[in-house]
From TrEMBL:
Keywords: Hydrolase. Belongs to the peptidase S66 family. This is Peptidase S66. Residues 12-131 form the LD-carboxypeptidase N-terminal domain. It comes from Paenibacillus durus ATCC 35681. The keyword Hydrolase applies.
């Protein structure tokens, strides 16, 4: 199931189901709102999005009310999360999934939002989106790729052939918008060759793993997994987290693995990641590629959780196509 495509004049509601919108600087919030308005959208903010407690978040009740209001309001067509965090999985037992199924909207965010996006997909069949937060639209430089991919997926009807960005960055752009560091993008690389297609499942790996053993974990059968992690994920931690996912009962039916770019502080290297992948017999027969433009570096692509992907990795060439429905 997918929500209607966005169009000019549609309302996008900003909610804060993880950390508070108040953590975002005023000027960044204004820039993000302006950018979305330039794309033709109207931007509104949920009632409790600015609330903040000792965890830089708000109560479960407040966050659930904002989430439900955004899906219930017929004027709202798209929903953007303010920022990531650590606690969105607190909300999962309290979400009214029947309300969401009856009022499908385009929910987009990444990192900690993986828990909500995955749970909504698993419980309702509604396609959700791993992509920019509202705060991401407040970036002044190097954001064209992110905005273009988001808008193409949200408004267009064609499949998207994923091309690498020209440059990428891993700096604290929100702290200093003028002094940025960009690196030429060499593009993704192949670890295991193969040719496959399947349902896109994934997002932030350590957050997805929080759903293991619960009713909210998506079915991995027939999936092409898109996974990434942030600077706190060292090679050893990523290895352990990936192994935990591999231990899921239906992992033997996974059809491919697409890994997002690691942050520099993680100290992951191509050689280390290749060794991690090559030590896992469960991955031998499926295509695996890495350094794709998503995760905690910028820019990032938007991909549909519950959508479709075609992946061909052969003789040094990678073809990756994503769509809400590939026929």
């Amino acid at each position: 199931m997918q929500a209607d495509k966005l169009k000019q004049g549609d309302e996008i509601r900003v909610i804060a189901p993880s950390r508070s919108l108040s953590l975002i600087r005023v000027e960044q919030r204004e820039l993000a709102k302006k950018k979305l308005e330039q794309l033709g959208y109207r931007v509104t903010f949920s009632k409790y999005s600015m609330d903040s407690d000792e965890f830089d978040s708000s109560s479960v009740e407040a966050r659930i009310e904002d989430l439900h209001d955004a899906f219930r309001d017929p004027k709202v067509k798209g929903i953007l999360t303010a920022i990531g965090g650590f606690n969105s999985n607190q909300l999962l037992p309290y979400i009214d999934y029947s309300l969401i199924k009856s009022n499908p909207k385009r929910l987009c965010g990444y990192s900690d939002i993986t828990a909500i996006s995955s749970a909504i997909y698993s419980q309702t069949g509604l396609i959700t989106y791993s992509g920019p937060h509202f705060s991401t639209f407040g970036m002044l430089q190097g954001n064209e790729y992110t905005v273009d991919c988001f808008n193409r997926l949200m408004t267009g009807h064609e499949s998207i052939q994923i091309r690498p960005s020209d440059y990428w960055s891993d700096d604290a752009w929100y702290a200093d918008q003028e002094r940025r560091t960009f690196f030429p993008n060499e593009g993704p690389y192949i670890i295991n060759e193969g040719d496959t297609s399947g349902v896109i499942i994934g997002g932030n790996l350590c957050t997805l793993n929080l759903l293991q053993g619960t009713m909210f974990m998506p079915d991995l059968a027939g999936a092409i997994l898109f996974v990434e992690d942030d600077y706190e994920s060292s090679p050893a931690t990523f290895d352990r987290d990936l192994q935990s996912l591999i231990h899921q009962a239906d992992f033997n039916k996974v059809k491919g693995l697409v890994i997002g770019r690691f942050q520099q502080a993680s100290q992951m290297t191509r050689d280390l990641l290749t060794k991690i992948i090559k030590t896992k017999k469960e991955l031998v027969s499926i295509p695996v590629i890495a350094d794709v433009d998503f995760g905690h570096t910028t820019p990032m692509l938007t991909f549909p959780i519950g959508g479709q992907a075609k992946l061909k990795a052969d003789e040094g060439r990678i073809d990756l196509i994503i769509s809400e429905s590939i026929r």
